[in-house]
Structure formats: structure tokens, C-alpha cells
Specification:
The protein is mainly β. Helices cover 6% and strands 28% of the residues. Strands 1, 2, 4, 6, 7, 8 and 10 form a 7-stranded mixed sheet that branches. Strands 3-15-11-5-9 form a 5-stranded mixed sheet. A 3-stranded antiparallel sheet has the order 12-13-14. The structure holds copper (II) ion.
Length: 273
């Protein structure tokens, strides 16, 4: 387990942020069927943010208009992480050495965080919607060289490629799963097959922070991914301060059910400090 040790300044930095997140990136070598990471390995196949891989990472929920800081800390042993935020432009405002003078802030939407470095970024959450935040190294957008942890994303039925016994080709889509009691079991019937239980599914979708996201959002959030959610105040309050159910597609601009975009939604935005 890793926790950040942050010393706050005696005099608060301005402009003051409304929300302050920390994301610690790590990487592990977890070989097929292993239950513990191989810490001697020089190659890595699992990436985590705050100890979890997407889609198990917890979305960062913000209210529209807030000034948000994210502190990225790279606790990986071997790799840099170019962290990329969709929908917003941020400024790089701090490093592991402290605050950067305002005049030297760099506008960006991607910041490289080297091993043992930290990078603070700040942005104004002025673009409503759910925006992925992820490392842009392609192999870090997935785990163990497959496009998804768990048998969710591949929807190709009867693809002979999946008949190769072993790992990870056996990971079939939900379309090739059958339900056995409370368990969804791959039809591959291979001892290495990934088994997804309803409990796993529930773990992904039942967290309060994920309520109202687009149907199937977890299919595109994997590896070193999280989601920044920028919600209009009413939706934010309903989500974070009540137990009311929030239907899928409540906070996304493009949804398959034609509920229409949230007001003010746009694809990209650059603003000045
Ligand atoms: Cu990375």
C-alpha cells in the first residue's frame, strides 16, 4: 500500500482549488494464475491507479465550474506515464519539488510523469460530462496485453482465435458467456478461463461514483484509466448527497438512448487562468 505525504503551505496557493485529488500510479508483474506479483520481474503487465486497474478505479467526481487539482505520483518501478485528460486543458502547476510560479505554468492536456516524480495539474471543470483520464502509453491502457481485464469487451462469437487453449485468447465477450447460477462462465471451459461473477459486475457498476454514467462505460476504461466526471450542481448533489438511483446515460453527451446531451456540453475547451 502506498499513501502520499503532502505538506500543505502555510499560506494557501491561489487561485484556491475546490477539489484536490491524488492519483498514485504503480505497475506490477502478475503472471497467469499467479496470486501475488513477481517483484523480481523486469517486465510489467498490470497497471494501477490508487491500487486499482480500470474499470475498478473510482471516478473523480467534480461539480461544474470548480477549480480542480490532480496530483499525479508515479510510484512505478520502470515506466513513465503520460497522463492525458479528455475534455479539458490543464496547467502544470507543481512538481515533487513544490509549486511552480504562475508565470511558468504550462497549458497542456497531457503530462509526462516520470518514475518517482509527481506532477500537479489544475483545470477549471467547465465542460460537463464524463471524461476519461488515462496514461497514453498504449500498453498501459490495457492489462496483460489484452484489451480488457475480464471477459467483457470482446464480442466476437465463434472466432477460431479464441479456440487456442491458454491465455489470454480464451477471454471471450459477454456474448459467449452462459450463466450458471449466479456465475457467468466462459463457454471455453478452459481451466484458465476468466470467470466473471455477478459480484464482479456489481463491484464495477454499483459504486455511487459510477451512477448515471453511459451504459457499458466500463468497456472502454481499463488499465491505467480513470474518469473525471464534471456534473451540473443538481446532478452532483443528487449523486453525492443522496441515495437516489440515477439512471445510466444521465451525464454523457453521446448516449445510445437518445436522451440528448447535457446543456453546455462540448468536445474540447481551452481557457486562460
Ligand atoms: Cu503509463
Amino acid at each position: 500500500m502506498v499513501v502520499p505525504f503532502i505538506i500543505h503551505p502555510k499560506v494557501v496557493h491561489t487561485p484556491v482549488v475546490d477539489r484536490d485529488f491524488v492519483l498514485v500510479a504503480q505497475q506490477f508483474s502478475i503472471l497467469p494464475n499467479a496470486t501475488i506479483p513477481n517483484s523480481n520481474a523486469m517486465d510489467w503487465n498490470f497497471l494501477t491507479l490508487n491500487g486499482r486497474s480500470g474499470p475498478y478505479t473510482t471516478p473523480l467526481v467534480c461539480k461544474l465550474g470548480e477549480r480542480v487539482r490532480i496530483r499525479f505520483i508515479n510510484f512505478s518501478t520502470l515506466h513513465q506515464h503520460p497522463m492525458h485528460l479528455h475534455g479539458h486543458t490543464f496547467w502544470i502547476t507543481g512538481t515533487e519539488g513544490g509549486r511552480i510560479p504562475d508565470s511558468a505554468w504550462i497549458p497542456s492536456n497531457n503530462v509526462v510523469v516520470g518514475v518517482a516524480q509527481s506532477r500537479d495539474v489544475e483545470f477549471i471543470a467547465n465542460n460537463p460530462g464524463d471524461w476519461v483520464l488515462h496514461c497514453h502509453m498504449f500498453h498501459h491502457m490495457m492489462n496483460h496485453m489484452t484489451s480488457q481485464v475480464g471477459p467483457i469487451i470482446r464480442q466476437v462469437k465463434n472466432d477460431p482465435g479464441f479456440q487456442v487453449p491458454g491465455y489470454p485468447q480464451i477471454m471471450k465477450g459477454m456474448s459467449s458467456m452462459k450463466m450458471e447460477g449466479m456465475k457467468a462462465v466462459s463457454e471455453g471451459d478452459n481451466e484458465y478461463a476468466m470467470k466473471m461473477t455477478m459480484k464482479d459486475m456489481q463491484k464495477i457498476t454499483s459504486r455511487r461514483e459510477t451512477q448515471g454514467m453511459r451504459d457499458g462505460w466500463y468497456k472502454g476504461v481499463k488499465g491505467l484509466f480513470s474518469v473525471v466526471r464534471v456534473l451540473p450542481p443538481e446532478l452532483y448533489d443528487k449523486l453525492m448527497n443522496t441515495d437516489e438511483p440515477i439512471p445510466p446515460n444521465s451525464s454523457t453527451p453521446w448516449n445510445p438512448h437518445g436522451r440528448g446531451a447535457m446543456p453546455g456540453m462540448r468536445m474540447s475547451q481551452a481557457v486562460t487562468p
